[in-house]
Amino acid sequence: MKRLVSILAVAPLALALLGQPSTAAPVDERVAPRQVLDVSDLPTGEPPAIAYAELTGRNRWKIHRPSGQTTFRGKLLELAPMGSGFVVQTSTRTAYETRWIGADGASGARTWRTGPGLAVSPKGGAVAFAGARGRVTVIDSDADRVLRMPRVPGRGLNSAVVVSGEDCKESATSNGCAVWVNSHRRSRSWVTSSHGLVDRTRFRQVSTGRGRWLGGITEASDTGTCSAMVRGQRTRWTTCRNRFSDISTVNEHVLGLPAYGDGFGPTTLDVLDLRSGDRVRSWVADRKGRSATYFGEIWEDPEHVLVVTFQDDKWAIVRLGLDGSMEYAVVPRTAADEFSMPLLLAAG
């Protein structure tokens, strides 16, 4: 009991990962509004309200945020706003590298060799990443502080997926934070807390989390996956139709990807009710395969989702509304080559 109370003091969401999942009924298969994800001719709306990057030349990026622009050079894979600058992740021939850069694009003093992926706290106050041999690192306090979390088991590369808490240094005013990490070597995941505790989760792979909600894959085969959505210690619902992505900023909806990831990228996207799993709205592929593929899906606000799309050899950032609206947030453009994605949304 003392162990559970300790974890609760660090991050209430961590309780969801201890013990076995409770029995939960599958989601209701009711019909929801659906439309083809055709982004070939849309009106143009406002620029994204969150940070994004556009490729302007060979390994040259312009990072946009409401407060201004930053230029950066490198093979950019992910970015997350932090203080006056960004935590960025790049690739080299042999590794992934993570660092902080300032508003002028200048790199901070340290660079870490890590696994892919950045985990961002709900309010953006903390960014976590994972390296080899179980290392987990968090940057917080407007990039003024770097903290090492207790190591998770294993020797291979891992990926940080979820971080709870905005201030990871425990004090009289902070309960610290917890980070959920997926293993690349094995189908398992872990939670590590600033309180010093490390536990294996009930999920094969954690997919998403926000507040006391946590979702992830519980079963996987050559034909698909099954996932569960948990709140606290209770499994609220399960599905073998979707994998989970971003949870909305007000904890009302979760994005559902296809249960089996294959090919260039997904072509269908579901918005699911977070509490029941019911489909609220869906974007689907047309029968001729001419509609869009999407990447980097993230909630912009409670009513809109941003996605990077690819259709007709052009890339765009498209705003999808729960009311069925669709518009360009960044107008379509071609890439320098077929292997380059020229637009990137910030991690959230």
Automatic annotation (TrEMBL):
Signal keyword on record: yes
Official protein name in the record: WD40 repeat domain-containing protein
Top-level lineage group: Bacteria
Residues in the signal sequence: 1-24
KW Signal (keyword) present: yes
Organism: Nocardioides piscis
Keywords for the protein's UniProt record, in alphabetical order: Signal
